[in-house]
Amino acid sequence: MPTTLHDLPEIEYLDGQPHRKVSPRLTHGRVQLALATAIARAAGTRGVTVTEVRFAPDSSGASKTELVPDVAYISNERLASLTDGQREKPPFSPDIAAEVRSPSDDLRHLQRKITRYLATGAILVLDVDPSQRLVHGEQRVGPAIDEQRRRRRRTARIDAERLVPVGDLGE
Fold this sequence. Notes:
Elements lengths: L10 E4 L2 E4 L5 H18 L3 E5 L19 E5 H5 L3 H5 L7 E5 L6 H13 L4 E6 L4 E7 L10 E7 L2 H4 L8
Parallel strand pairs: 5-6
Antiparallel strand pairs: 1-2, 3-4, 4-5, 6-7, 7-8
């Protein structure tokens, strides 16, 4: 009898609460790849750009938090401070975290993730909405003492022809 092999759904944890990641579809995957390529190109040799890597910010707290951004960038400086084991699941948020929205995403959960990323080491978080062709960027602009007041949000329309050819977005 043939066996079908597949991974179990990815589960993230935020303050101990499990949240199942949505299984990406073609458009999501193409935008994710294009975004990772653009970030890697801009970063050059200053760090690494990865997709779907688990991060464990706030690992010292009582409630488990493990987040899996669609795309992440980590500087070489931050990577150098980690042991080999920690590199596989960094104990902080990436310098840049990007989340590509899916139609069924829980936007309240997404906003809580963005807040956590910024409070635990991220400098920039990109919230990419392919259906609206928008990129919302949130940047940490000061100490993480009062995150709600120390965040700056910018929104820009995706230049779809540069990121992903419009004909490839599956409209």
